[in-house]
Amino acid sequence: MKMYLIDLCKGGMMKTRNIVLVGIIATLAIACGKSFTDLKPISERNTAEFYKSAQDFNTAIMGVYDGLQALYGSEATQHSTNGSLWILTEVRSDNTDAGGDVTGLAASLAQINTFTETPSNQYLTNFWISAYQEINRCNAILDRIDNIDMSDALRKQYKGETLFIRSLVYFHLAQLFGNVPLRLKEPQSIYEDINQVPASDVYKQLITDLKTAISDLPTSYSSNNVGRATKGAAEALLGDVYLTTGDKQNAKTTLQTIVSSNQYSLLPNYADLWDVNNKDNAESVFEVHYKGGAIGEGSPFTNLFSPSSDLQPGVGEGVNRPSLDLVDAFEPGDARFKISMDTSYVDPVSGDTISARYVKKYFSQEATQYDADNDFYVYRYADVLLMLAEAEGESPEAYSLINQVRARAGLGSIDGNTPGTFSEKLLHERRVEFAFENKRWYDLKRFGVAVQTMKNVVEADNEGNYAIDSHNLIYPIPRRELDATSELKQNDGYSQ
Description:
The protein contains 18 helices and 10 strands. By secondary structure, it is mainly alpha-helical. It has 2 domains: 20-291 and 377-462, Serine Threonine Protein Phosphatase 5, Tetratricopeptide repeat; 301-374, no CATH class. A hairpin with a 6-residue loop joins strand 8 (341-346) and strand 9 (353-359). Helix 7 (199-216) packs antiparallel against helix 8. Mean pLDDT is 87; it is low at 1-45 and 76-80.
């Protein structure tokens, strides 16, 4: 089956119903209906009856893939609910701002942009809840899968997929919140210890888990399963973790393995990356899948990022608006600019040219609002090449990797004689290549320039310096989680 991933209740089967205590899910994959009991009605299934066969585990893993939509962008929903990773990464950075409207529901979005958020910010809360729901889905699978009769090869694959996705979620939690609860088992009681650990401990766990995933996952899949996590996907995430922890040598070794596998290549035309009919292409290492058609699996990005309701069905929210600074960052002749964004559009009724900065990467011809076919790249081969260049450090080999990406954009080569430091040149290349792909905030932090960059950034609607210091590199722990237990401690610099 093609990887348009359906959560457990969709299609009349079964759903994951989530009961959260400080963001940790107490139950998983329990029956459709108003409550869960031990009565096991004929028409419904619960955890005691589920997880009995390889097919059950495949269904559960489909629910785990589907859960990624709640982090990257939920189906058929406005930005005011969940799917807020683009808010916490792109809007937080110098790439985009909240858009023209910063009142009402948009006020919480504007807070992320201006570093004025509080622990009660809805986007922080929504992301935290969705992340731990996803983690507990993964833990439920990992806790049970060794007790089921299935082939060793299939068991290893399912474990590898689940470990990869759990690691991806924890990677975002550690990047965004720093000190987070590290849960590796499904909770058996609401009275279990929280086990809040520093981000460094999370990364250590991810290195262990991703090494296991790499050994368990296949290099590729047959056509019916294309889109599932592969060895290359786990290697890309592991390389990212190594770079984040400053271990460039292990990052280099891991990322070079992907290049040497010859499984991936840059698409010749940058525009082809954003064609909704070109999913899981040669450059795609891993992507979150969506499918329009009023089945609850469409992506919301077309409506969210459009500047006008005249350009697509339904509303145009005009959020995640590119900054003037990003507009200026593109070199003359860079083919990526008009594919990634624009600064005006033609009104289809009046024919007038309207000035507006907006994201174009995720535009498509959807039938109904918040129901597009656009997938979201988590890793693609260009990222592997530029991460490998970072791991290499300034050298002819590193510039060769960067220049592969630049050549595709129609730009000339750079080298050690090109103005700027190696870090500045690489960070610039990553910015324009991955604009609006949730990379920028993590890059600014990893390169050690987030505070200074954001102090100096100038936006069209917010000229001047941001009030930001080192404590703003991570977000506050959500208020509702702190209120639930005294074991969870707030990050430094934020109100308890």
